[in-house]
Write a structure and sequence with these properties.
The protein is α+β, with helices and mostly antiparallel strands. 38% of the residues lie in helices and 20% in strands. The protein has a 7-stranded antiparallel β-sheet with strand order 15-12-14-13-17-18-16, sandwiched between helices. It has a 5-stranded antiparallel β-sheet with strand order 5-6-10-8-9. A 4-stranded mixed β-sheet has the order 1-2-4-3, covered by helices on one side. Helix 1 runs antiparallel to helix 2 (50-63) and helix 14 runs antiparallel to helix 15 (391-407).
């Protein structure tokens, strides 16, 4: 016999769109975070409208049922892992591209739309949404929740720079609209930006207005191996100051590149002696409206990188360039496959990257493990795979690396969010006054405390 709350949920979304018990597939129990164990929720609801989301949240608030939102489940922080007694709201049915507005260069989409679907919907207009983290099956709602970034952030920014407005449902059931098809606003608090990056703890986005950019027809990728990692970091500000405006500027350490080459069957044309002698690679992707201008930019980039100490410079076009970028976007899966025990996506000022990476590697070695990876060199976002089998040593190592990032002027997460996995470190290391202020904001939005209660404010400490 159904409980009162189960019957209420079923009445809101329909019997076929509410899953309970053994009918809940394992895919709903987790996201892609490495360390948080899966957890089957009590209920999975699949609403079709903002009004249904509103009714679900009102019912959950009345009964004290914790609520977790889910897009594609591709997150890397455990923010989409539900509670055992909780309600998982899946936005898979709210997956329509409602409008592609070519005059204002925006799209209006529902949160369940994947990046692949949005890209297909905007291609005929010659436009594109440029916030593209490594997994293109991720949803726009997930972009909003985590303030997603990705490799193109060096030129196009992160979700915060590309989400112009929202329709959002508060846990009280109120439906609000924030922002709009406008480039700027100076009227009251910016609620759009408060909700972006809040990881489903304040409100649930049910419509998103995103900025679009013209698609540029011509692109090429320059791959430069360096014998010394510090040379890579020295080269980054020089490339950015050159006026070339790369849309991707990444570093990949030699161990990660070897893993990518092996697992993704890359053919980059790099001789063995060069590959063996280099410590890291710089990937510079360029784009332009015309082939002639692109060719000129590529030549300039190659000359500059050679002057800055690159062992050699390789220009990849077409399939080779695309395969390298795709392999870099799949770096997480590659590192997961080779035995990573945890993943860090800290962000530090670009100038602090050499010190941060060298010190983090030293800390990992001292703990009997290793820290390898790649990152968005253009914006200081460092992705490290942590290999450390001892759980206590790993916890201390993670704490030390996060503390290092914050001492250098950075933050624990640059784009994956804190989720359940990184919240304990955040509570341990962040300024208590800031955490207290965030708690008061949370209370204002969510007086019943039902939205993702284990994220940002969990009582557990690292």
């Amino acid at each position: 016999m159904r409980s009162d709350i189960e019957a209420q949920f079923a009445e809101i979304v329909g019997n076929s769109n509410l899953l309970t018990g053994d009918a809940i597939p394992e895919d709903y129990w987790h996201d892609e975070e490495l360390t948080t164990p899966p957890q089957k929720p009590a209920y999975v609801a699949k609403p079709a409208s903002a009004q249904e989301v509103s009714q679900l949240l009102v019912a959950a608030s009345e009964h004290g049922v914790p609520v977790t939102a889910r897009g594609s489940g591709s997150g890397l922080s455990g923010a989409a892992r539900p509670r055992a007694n909780g309600l998982l709201i899946s936005f898979e049915r709210m997956n329509a591209v409602l409008e592609v507005d070519t005059t204002n260069q925006v799209a209006v989409v529902q949160p369940g739309v994947t990046l692949t679907e949005l890209d297909a919907a905007t291609v005929d207009a010659g436009l594109r949404y440029m916030v593209q983290p490594g997994e293109l099956s991720s949803s726009v709602g997930g972009n909003v929740g985590t303030n997603a970034g990705g490799m193109r952030a060096v030129k196009y920014g992160i979700a915060r720079h590309n989400v112009l407005g929202l329709q959002a449902v508060l846990p009280t059931g109120e439906i609000i609209r924030t922002g709009g098809k406008i480039a700027k606003v100076s009227t009251g608090y910016d609620l759009t930006q408060l909700i972006v990056g809040s990881e489903g703890t304040l409100a649930l986005a049910t419509e998103v207005i995103v900025k679009l950019y013209p698609r540029l027809d011509h692109s090429a990728t320059v791959l430069a191996p360096f014998a010394d990692f510090d040379q890579v970091m020295t080269a980054v500000p020089k490339v950015l100051a050159s006026g070339l405006a790369p849309y991707i500027l990444e570093y990949i350490d030699n161990m990660t590149m070897a893993a990518l080459v092996h697992t993704q069957n890359l053919e980059l044309g790099i001789p063995d002696q060069v590959r063996d002698s280099c410590e890291a690679y710089l990937v510079v992707a360029l784009e332009n409206r015309t082939a002639d201008r692109l060719e000129e930019d590529v030549e300039t980039a190659g000359e500059l990188l050679a002057e800055l100490g690159a062992v050699d410079v390789y220009v990849l076009e077409g399939g080779s360039a695309r395969k390298l970028i795709e392999a870099r976007e799949k770096a997480f899966w590659t590192l997961k496959a080779v035995g990573a025990d945890d993943l860090i996506d800290t962000v530090v000022p670009r100038s602090a990257m050499p010190k941060f990476i060298a010190t983090a590697r030293g800390l990992a070695t001292a703990a009997g493990g290793a820290a390898v990876g790649c990152g968005h060199a253009g914006d200081g976002n460092v992705h490290l795979a942590i290999i450390c089998k001892d759980p206590q040593k790993k916890k201390q190592l993670m704490t030390d690396i996060f503390a290092l990032a914050m001492e250098l002027g950075g933050a624990i997460s640059g784009e994956h969010g804190l989720g359940r996995a990184k919240t304990p470190y955040f509570l341990k290391l962040e300024d208590p006054a800031k955490i207290s202020l965030m708690r008061r904001i949370k209370q204002s939005f969510d007086p019943a405390g039902i939205l993702n209660p284990d994220v940002l404010f969990a009582a557990e400490e690292a």
